[in-house]
Amino acid sequence: MTILLGILEEGLIYAIMALGVYITYKILDFPDLSVDGTFPLGAALTAGLIVKGIPPAAALPLSFLAGAIAGCITGLIHVKCRVRDLFSGIIVMTALYSVNLRIAGMRANLPFLSQDTIFDNEWTRNQVPDPIKPYILVLILAAITIICKLLLDWYLGTRSGYLLQAAGDNDTLVTSLAMDKGLVKVIGLSIANGFAALAGGILAQKQAFFDISIGTGTMVFGLASVILGTQLFKRFSMVRTTTAVIAGAILYKACVAFVISIRIVKATDLKLITAAILLLILVISDSLKRKGAHPHVGA
User: Fold this and answer.
1) What is the signed CA dihedral for 181, 183, 184, 185, rounded to 10 degrees?
2) Containing H/E element for 209?
3) Checking CA distances to 156, which of 52, 108, 259, 292 falls within 20 to 30 Å?
């Protein structure tokens, strides 16, 4: 049960970040590496605010806003400065390393173990019934993840959301509707990195500390979650893509936990495992696409 709860906890946190990667990777077709910087940005800002006495719940929307601003900068560098999408993300990701250190008071690790968080506070300690306490973290994370999913679903159903989807598939259509396709990309990148920073802030509150290396490999985890979820559920038309992405994040975390549990490799090899599983998913996904594109025709 402890392992299952751990998988759900980590999976739900990274699912929020994966929703952002879904926007950049699947909708905009934009390889946005700034996610590796905005994820720890949210964690650093959340830790810094909580240490200064800001309520933990209030720190999360501020983290989203900070991530959105960083995503906007990525978009502006790409659109206004005409820098390639990959380089735009790398530039912002690199710059955010120093920004995150400054937010954390020039400390690579900023603990706040004695402070309240959204998971450990007076309400969760005194008001939640004892039988529910072991599951309160998962329940809170599930509620936040569902809210994020519903908000994204709602946005994608708006005119702005339709334009965002068109910007990735047919930017000529966006231009024909008298809309600036560059502006649409900036909006998409802002929302995506807002989700990444929000996830980082939530993870920091779960761990009760910020670490400068917390964002390493975030983009890999997000890509794997999106690809795994969309491939597994693409035949089920009733399952929304955002739901598939969330399921993919949980399943991907379960795969990583399984590999570690069978003790073929050590827990210190987590990043190696993450990369290897992503490679496997990409190879299988490409193989399935080729089979679909060239179906066998019998005599």
Assistant:
1) 90
2) strand 209-211
3) 292
